[in-house]
Amino acid sequence: MYDTKISRYWVCLTAVIFLFLSPARYVLSGEVEQSQSQQTSETKKLRDEELARKKEEKEQRKKLEADQKEKKLQLNEQAKSLYQEGIALYNSKNYTESQKKFEQTAQVIPHYSRTDYYLGRIPKDIQREKEQLENKKKRQEELARNKADQEQQKNLEAETREKERLEKEKQKQLELAKKEQEQKQKEDELALKEQEKQQKLEQARIEKERKKQEEISRQEAQRKQKEEQEHQKKLEAEAKEKELKLIEQAKITYNEALSLYRSKNYEQAKVKFEYTAQTVPHYSKTDYYLSLIPQDIQKEKELKEVELKKQQEQFAREQKIKKEAEAKEQQKLEKEKQKQLELAKKEQEQKQKEDELAKKKAEQEKQKQITTEQQKAKQLETQKKQQEEIVRKEQEQKQKEEGLVRKKADQEQQKNLEAETREKERLEKEKQKQLELTKKEQERKQKEEESAQKTTINSLYKEATSLYNHNQPYEARVIFLNILSLDPTEQKALDYIKNKIPNLINELRKVE
Fold first, then answer.
1. Residue 265, by phi and psi: left (phi above 0), alpha (psi -120 to 50) or beta?
2. Which DSSP string corresponds to 225-289?
3. What is the value of pTM for the model shown?
4. Which residue among 162, 166, 309, 464 is least packed, with the fewest CB closer than 10 Å?
5. Residue 511, Cβ density class (10 Å: 0-12 exposed, 13-18 middle, ≥19 buried)
6. Could you tell me if residue 298 is inside a domain?
7. Considering the domain boundaries, does residue 372 fall inside one?
8. Rounded to an integer, what distance in angstroms lies between the CA atom of residue 480 and that of residue 457?
9. pLDDT tens digits along 348-374
């Protein structure tokens, strides 16, 4: 390479000289000398540059050789470390990692030491190890199955033993409960006997009280009878006085009724006679006059009707005569007829007015009679009410006296009843106290049993959780079943049996 450069340089130099020399025949000699000096200086420069280049190239070659040596040493060290790691992994039977390390050494330095030998042998070793592991797994699974079967058998036996123990405990508890019930029954029987005794005593006391009460009531009845007899005598005397008064009053009203009857004022006479009959029944001839008055009223009505009929007939005859006269006159003169009609109309209107006035007078008279009768009836009613008020007051006074007697008897009975009720309440309170004492005793026993049960459950729970934490699920399961037999609502024990213990068994099987 260096020789070719020199040859090229000399060819160029000759060419330049030729170019300078070819026209030099026509140029001055001074110019030739200048050109030659320039050429020599240039050649020197070129030589110096060439020498500097040669030195640089030598230094570069040395550096490259040193770098290559360093790289070779580094690669050897890297390959050595990888190779040693691969051998260590191979010796520890980690074939997959050792294979990776040997492949890395082969990539760094191909065919380094015994890498090819190990790379050829490792797949066979991996296959052999897989077969060994499979055989080992099969053996372990068989052992785990046998172990699980044995443990299940043990657990079943333990469960049966635990069930028998629990049944025995239940029977004991039932026997204790029966004994307690029998004791309670005995206590109840004693309490009933005591109650019956108290009831008998109470009945005897009540019987005595009843006899006393009967004696008091009998004496009271005799006293009342005497009072009633005296009262009856008083009433008879008062009744006689009242009868005399009523007879006098009846006499007055009877005389008034006779005077009215004689003056043919039958309706008022009837009212008076009825009043006399009410005050004193069948007084003198009241019944006779009362029987006559309707007939007299009927006769008077009939006479009035006959008079009215006569008047009507007379009026009808007059009408007929007038009509005939009018018919005759109508044929003669219409004007006169009209005048007569007008006069007739006026007369009719006047008659109507007169009739209306007569009717009004009759109504007024009737109204006066009615008002007088009403006033008389009101007076009679007021008299009646006064008499009734007197009788009512006497009855009220009698009732008050009887009420006072009754109140005394009721007060005595009330006192006796209150004494009986107080006695009954006292007995009931004593009974309630006894019942409360028995209840408290039962509650205390129940609380003691519950506290004992809680302590047993807590101790069993601690034991079971410790076994569970020490990876003994089957033993823990038996204890949790015991807890549930004591308290079926224990949620923690149920959670362990349903979820946690099966999960632990599965984890232990996976590990094995």
1. beta
2. HHHHHHHHHHHHHHHHHHHHHHHHHHHHHHHHHHHHHHTT-HHHHHHHHHHHHHHSTT-TTHHHH
3. 0.24
4. 309
5. exposed
6. yes
7. no
8. 9
9. 788 788 778 877 877 788 788 788 777
